[in-house]
Amino acid sequence: MSTIKDVAKAANVSLSTVSLALRSDPKVKESTRRRVLEVARELQYRPNGIARDLKTRKTDTICILLHDLGGPFYSELIRGVQEVAKSSGYNTIASGSLGGRNGSAVKLLSERRVDGAIVLAPDVEDEVIVQAAGEDLPIVVLDRELTGDFVYSVRVDNEQGGYQVTRHLLEMGNRRIVFVGGPADSFDAELRYRGYAKAMGEFSALVSKRFDYNGQFTEQGGYTVGKVLGAQPELPDAIFASNDEMALGILRAFEEKGIRVPDDVALAGFDNIRIAEYVRPPLTTVQQPMYEMGAVAAQLLLQALSGSKALGSVRLATNLVARQSSQRHVSQGNKTKV
Predict the structure, then answer these.
(1) Which of 42, 51, 151, 152 is deepest in the core (most CB within 10 A)?
(2) C-alpha distances in Å from residue 133, one per residue of 109, 111, 138, 295
């Protein structure tokens, strides 16, 4: 495949002249432009769309950077971004964030290959985001509190959600409630733990440490935690898994062990992914406004790109969705189920 360097060499002109000629820039003589175009045709040269857009700083594309492209949490989020972006003539691409500073996601930001970005990836460091953000690349973060020029945030009230679901479990009579956390660098998991600890404190219940049980926000991680809990001499009254995928893994491990949910132990998750209401028993969880989160993030980006003043930070509420998996009533007098 021919490159712009090949065209410049064959036409005996500079790289910048080729670039200007291909864009029909009036600075280039008509005879030179025709010669460059003729050489380009002979060499079957095709300009790189991304490179061309980088010159004009306009790609009509918004990128969503995600830690895990495969998680069920993300489908509604992406749909929210896509629908708002499409209505304003923007395309949407999604990219995984693996690779750290050397990964393709960071390069996408630093090289400004898109017009704006939405970040839900704790492994993309704050410093990278702040340095990349600018008038020509506004960035919306969904997983952290971050301030800076042209950096905006949309946050779900994770602490309130953690509090809501833990208080629900406590009001059912449970006192020994285990918290199953996510990745150590997850700010969302930290906030959900704070909500859990706050509710437990109000009932003078023993608070488990954040990293006693860690399921890494994956179903397999939850399954491993379920195996560990199921092998202990005494089960807790209830388990709050800080996302639904881990709760489903715990449920699978308990089924294999013959542990009944909610008869033997109550179980709750967080996110309200689609499958949560269809598993047996249906999973108690916290509803995150995933579609709304994506739509609001896209709206903030479009406002910034249009030159309008966008809100620096938006916080969205959560709602408890109580289902059968937590319906374990406990009498505090004799600890019997009723």
Answers:
(1) 152
(2) 8, 11, 5, 20
CB atoms within 10 A of CB 263: 11
> Distance between CA atoms of 247 and 271, rounded to whole angstroms?
11
Cα separation, 310 vs 313, whole angstroms: 9
- Whether the CA torsion 312, 318, 292, 95 is positive or negative: it is positive
- Beta-bridge mates of residue 211: none
> In this predicted model, what pLDDT tens digit does every residue of 262-303 receive, in sequence order?
999 999 999 999 999 999 999 999 999 999 999 999 999 999
> What's 324's DSSP letter?
G
**Phi/psi at 320 (5° precision):** -75, 135
Q: Are 232 and 173 in contact (CB under 8 A)?
A: no
Tell me the C-alpha distance between 79 and 315, whole Å: 19
- 255 Cβ contact list (under 8 Å, min separation 6): none
Sheet holding 238-241, edge to edge: 177-180, 238-241, 266-268
C-alpha 322/C-alpha 268 separation (Å) is 9
- Domains in the chain, ordered, with CATH? 4-47 (1.10.260.40), 57-156+291-314 (3.40.50.2300), 158-288+321-326 (3.40.50.2300)
Q: Tell me the CA distances in angstroms from 30 to 24, 37, 140, one per residue in order.
A: 9, 11, 44
Contact (CB, 8 A) for 123 and 281: no
Q: Is 150 helix (H, G, I), strand (E, B) or coil?
A: coil
How many whole angstroms separate alpha carbon 116 and alpha carbon 108?
10
- Asked if 154 contacts 140 with a C-beta cutoff of 8 angstroms, the reply is yes
Residue 81, Cβ density class (10 Å: 0-12 exposed, 13-18 middle, ≥19 buried): buried
Rounded Cα distance between 279 and 76, Å, is 19
- Phi then psi for residue 108, to 5 deg, are -60, -40
